C-alpha cells in the first residue's frame, strides 16, 4: 500500500521517552502534524522543545487531535487516560497504544465512541529512530480493539507506515497476543533470560578462578557478535560464522544448559502472564512504591560484571555513551 492511499490524522503523542520521541520524530518526518503532550516541568519537556515540537499538557494536546498515542510508562497510563485523555479527546478520535497491557488486562476501558488500536514496534525507541533515519524500519505489529469509525485498520497502517515499520514488515495481531508475547519475550528471553544467562556464565568462570575481565569479554562482550548474526540471518548464519569447535560445543552443551526444566519454567512464566498474575503483582509493586523493583535493580547494578564492565568499556572509546540510556524492550 502506498502512503498516499492512507489517512493523515493529526497526532498527539503523550510521553516523550524511548518510544514517544522516536514516534514523534519519525511521524513528523513522514509528514504528519504532531503535537507532544507532557506534564509541565518534567525531565523530557526540554528535549521535546529542543527537537522543535509544540509541547502542551496532555489535556490540551489531545483536544484537537484525530489520533492520540499513549506513550507514557505502562503503569501511569490509566491515570493519564482517566484524568487527561477521556475528558478531552474529540468524539470519534482514535486512541493508540504501543503495548496492549492496560487494555488487555482491563485497567483502561476506553470510551465507546473511540477507535482503539495498537501499533507496537518490535524494537526499542532509539532503534525505531535510527533505522528510520537510514531509510530502513523496525517491524511493527498492529491490532484493532475497537473500530467505531470503520477506519481503525487504515489508521493503524498509516501510523505504522509513518514510523517506517512498513519498510520492514507489518503483521496484524490482537491486543491479547501482543501483550502476552511481548511480556513473555522480555521476561524469558530478551531481558530476563539473556541477562541471567550472562550473569550465571560470568559467575561460574569467576568462581572457578578465571580473571573477571576475561570472563566479561567471553560471556558479555562477545554476545554482540552472535546477536548481530542472529539478526542478519538467524541461527543458520551464526553457525556459518563460528568455528567447527564452537558448533560442536553448541550442539552438545547448549541443550544441557537450556534443558527441558528451563522450558518448563518458561511455561510457568507464560502461565503467570496469561492468567494475569504477573500484571497483578506488577501493579501492586508499583502502587507500593517499587520496594522490590529498587532492590532487584540495585543488586544488578552492584553485580561484579557491571563493575568490571565499566572499567573495560572506558577503553572502548568508540562507544557512544551520550546515546539515550533507556533502550528497554
Ligand atoms: P518511557 O518510560 O520512556 O516514557 C517516559 C515518558 O513518559 C516521559 O516523556 C515522561 O515525561 C512521560 N511521563 C511519565 N509519567 C507521566 C505522566 N504521569 N503524565 C504524562 N507523561 C508522563 O516509556 P517507553 O517509551 O519505554 O514506553 C512507552 C510505551 O511503549 C509503553 O506502553 C511500553 O510498553 C511501550 N513500548 C516500549 C518499548 C521500549 O522500547 N521502551 C518497546 C515497545 C513498546 P516526564 O519527562 O514528565 O517524566
Ligand atoms: Mg570463545
Ligand atoms: Mg515490552
From TrEMBL:
Q: Where does NADP(+) bind?
A: 16-19, 39, 44, 125
Binding residues annotated for substrate, in chain numbering: 243
The UniProt record lists the KARI N-terminal Rossmann domain at 1-173
User: Domain of life here?
Assistant: Bacteria
Q: Name one GO molecular function term.
A: isomerase activity
Give the pathway: Amino-acid biosynthesis; L-isoleucine biosynthesis; L-isoleucine from 2-oxobutanoate: step 2/4; Amino-acid biosynthesis; L-valine biosynthesis; L-valine from pyruvate: step 2/4
> Residues in domain KARI C-terminal knotted?
174-319
What is one GO biological process annotated to this record? isoleucine biosynthetic process
Q: Which InterPro entries match?
A: 6-PGluconate_DH-like_C_sf, KARI, KARI_C, KARI_N, KARI_prok, NAD(P)-bd_dom_sf
Positions annotated to bind Mg(2+) 1: 182, 186
Q: What class of enzyme is it?
A: oxidoreductase
Residues that bind Mg(2+) 2:
182, 218, 222
Its cofactor is: Mg(2+)
State how the cofactor is bound.
Binds 2 magnesium ions per subunit.
> What is the reaction catalyzed?
(2R,3R)-2,3-dihydroxy-3-methylpentanoate + NADP(+) = (S)-2-ethyl-2-hydroxy-3-oxobutanoate + NADPH + H(+); (2R)-2,3-dihydroxy-3-methylbutanoate + NADP(+) = (2S)-2-acetolactate + NADPH + H(+)
Name the PROSITE patterns for this protein: KARI_C, KARI_N
Job of this protein: Involved in the biosynthesis of branched-chain amino acids (BCAA). Catalyzes an alkyl-migration followed by a ketol-acid reduction of (S)-2-acetolactate (S2AL) to yield (R)-2,3-dihydroxy-isovalerate. In the isomerase reaction, S2AL is rearranged via a Mg-dependent methyl migration to produce 3-hydroxy-3-methyl-2-ketobutyrate (HMKB). In the reductase reaction, this 2-ketoacid undergoes a metal-dependent reduction by NADPH to yield (R)-2,3-dihydroxy-isovalerate.
Q: What name appears for this protein in its UniProt entry? A: Ketol-acid reductoisomerase (NADP(+))
Per the UniProt record, the source organism is Luteimonas wenzhouensis
Amino acid at each position: 500500500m502506498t502512503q498516499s492511499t492512507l489517512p493523515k490524522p493529526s497526532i498527539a503523542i503523550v510521553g516523550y521517552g524511548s518510544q514517544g520521541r522516536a514516534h514523534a520524530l519519525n511521524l513528523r518526518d513522514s509528514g504528519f502534524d504532531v503535537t507532544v503532550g507532557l506534564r509541565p516541568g518534567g525531565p523530557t519537556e526540554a528535549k521535546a522543545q529542543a527537537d522543535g515540537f509544540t509541547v502542551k499538557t496532555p489535556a490540551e494536546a489531545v483536544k484537537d487531535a484525530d489520533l492520540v498515542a499513549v506513550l507514557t510508562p505502562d503503569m501511569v497510563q490509566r491515570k493519564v487516560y482517566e484524568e487527561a485523555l477521556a475528558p478531552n479527546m474529540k468524539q470519534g478520535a482514535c486512541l493508540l497504544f504501543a503495548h496492549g497491557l492496560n487494555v488487555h488486562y482491563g485497567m483502561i476501558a476506553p470510551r465507546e465512541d473511540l477507535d482503539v488500536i495498537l501499533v507496537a514496534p518490535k524494537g526499542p525507541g532509539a532503534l525505531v529512530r535510527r533505522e528510520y533515519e537510514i531509510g530502513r524500519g523496525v517491524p511493527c505489529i498492529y491490532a484493532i480493539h475497537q473500530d467505531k469509525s470503520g477506519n481503525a485498520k487504515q489508521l493503524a497502517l498509516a501510523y505504522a507506515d509513518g514510523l517506517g515499520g512498513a519498510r520492514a514488515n507489518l503483521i496484524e495481531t490482537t491486543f491479547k497476543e501482543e501483550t502476552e508475547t511481548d511480556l513473555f519475550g522480555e521476561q524469558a528471553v530478551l531481558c530476563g533470560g539473556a541477562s541471567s544467562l550472562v550473569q550465571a556464565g560470568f559467575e561460574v568462570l569467576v568462581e572457578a578462578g578465571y580473571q573477571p575481565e576475561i570472563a566479561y569479554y567471553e560471556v558479555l562482550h562477545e554476545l554482540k557478535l552472535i546477536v548481530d548474526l542472529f539478526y542478519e540471518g538467524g541461527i543458520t548464519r551464526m553457525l556459518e560464522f563460528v568455528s567447527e569447535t564452537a558448533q560442536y560445543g553448541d550442539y552438545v552443551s547448549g541443550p544441557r544448559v537450556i534443558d527441558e526444566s528451563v522450558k518448563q519454567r518458561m511455561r510457568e512464566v507464560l502461565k503467570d502472564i496469561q492468567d494475569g498474575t504477573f500484571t497483578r503483582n506488577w501493579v501492586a509493586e508499583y502502587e507500593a512504591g517499587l520496594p522490590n523493583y529498587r532492590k532487584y535493580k540495585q543488586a544488578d547494578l552492584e553485580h561484579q560484571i557491571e563493575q568490571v564492565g565499566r572499567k573495560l568499556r572506558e577503553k572502548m572509546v568508540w562507544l557512544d555513551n551520550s546515546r539515550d540510556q533507556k533502550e528497554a524492550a
